[in-house]
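We were asked to recover a plausible sequence for a given structure. The inputs and outputs are reproduced exactly as logged, with field labels preserved.

PROBLEM: sequence recovery
POSITIONS: 181
GIVEN STRUCTURE:
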């Protein structure tokens, strides 16, 4: 057994549906509509890195593994494109990442990569987008979603004037999809 495999087996890792849903999606599993399957959905890179990945991609297939790797390379589409056009969401990947805050200190954030039916990606470090994925999982199930769910990003101002991004289902595109347009 390699050191890497030893590190993985020595870690005390809870992979229960409730813990994963709560940690990554902010979902209350006691009010869950659809079941969440977590087997093969979480990856640990090393004890030092502590980067975690949670996805609805099929991690048993070479294609699923390749898409995961490409998600770390940056996004294909700028995320502001989703405010202008519909994105047909089939899969998602969430992972911890590090960014510099206003003081230049390295802070841990959650990064969410949205993946369409053609493998195109866009990414966000936004609690509103992550919450939106949690809503989709509760209503539509874990996915992958077939047919893909048409989504858009809506930016709203809070009462205190902050801008927040939310992921919403594009109802008119969903109706067109159902009508075969």
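RECOVERED SEQUENCE:
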């Amino acid at each position: 057994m390699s050191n890497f495999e030893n590190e993985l087996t020595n870690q005390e890792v809870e992979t229960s549906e409730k813990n994963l849903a709560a940690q990554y999606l902010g979902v209350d599993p006691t009010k869950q509509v659809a079941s969440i399957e977590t087997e093969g959905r979480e990856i640990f890179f090393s004890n030092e890195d502590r980067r975690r990945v949670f996805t609805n991609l099929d991690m048993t297939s070479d294609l699923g593994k390749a898409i995961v790797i490409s998600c770390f390379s940056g996004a294909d589409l700028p995320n502001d494109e989703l405010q202008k056009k519909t994105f047909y969401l089939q899969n998602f990947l969430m992972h911890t990442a590090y960014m510099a805050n206003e003081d230049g200190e390295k802070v841990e954030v959650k990064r969410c990569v949205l993946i369409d039916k053609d493998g195109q990606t866009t990414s966000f470090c936004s609690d509103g987008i992550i919450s939106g994925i949690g809503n989709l999982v509760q209503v539509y199930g874990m996915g992958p979603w077939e047919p893909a769910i048409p989504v858009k990003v809506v930016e709203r101002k809070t009462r205190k004037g902050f801008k927040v991004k939310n992921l919403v289902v594009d109802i008119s595109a969903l109706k067109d999809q159902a009508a075969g347009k």
